[in-house]
Amino acid sequence: MNNRFDENHESPQAPMTSRTDEAATFAPANPLESALVESAAGRLEQRDFFEVFVQAEVYQIAEDAPQEADVPIFPIALQDPEHGRVIAVFSDPSRATPYETKAPHVLALTGSQVFEQIPAGHGIVLNPGSQFSLTIPGYGVLNLRRDFGIRRIAT
């Protein structure tokens, strides 16, 4: 389900259309995806979902392969019409398949590391284009950093 934070920084907002058919075809591949489905259905609180997210292994994609451990890669950023620049993050490598020709390199990291490394002003889109995705605008990233005690690491 495609969720967005509301302007009051509260809960993700679901679109007006029904996605029950999509829920039946989306098979969660890991605990993060199960939490995403449960959250979208209203059976898991937002804070509980993000507790799973910050601890989960997630994936970013990049055009260039990392050269050295201490040299940052530049993950794919997308332009969201409502929220500006968002960094694409995937809950499972298979969710990145539509982007593999543009960005064939996959980097595994934790959700917490995503929040540490995301550039100022950027948001996050989890599973862009998927049946179940979540967009976190830049102000949502700041709020989640505060709520979970995550500091941005300058790169």
TrEMBL record:
Residues 1-10 have a biased composition (Basic and acidic residues). It comes from the Bacteria. It holds the Pfam family SseB. Residues 32-139 form the SseB protein N-terminal domain. Residues 1-22 are annotated as: Disordered. This is SseB protein N-terminal domain-containing protein. It comes from Blastopirellula marina.
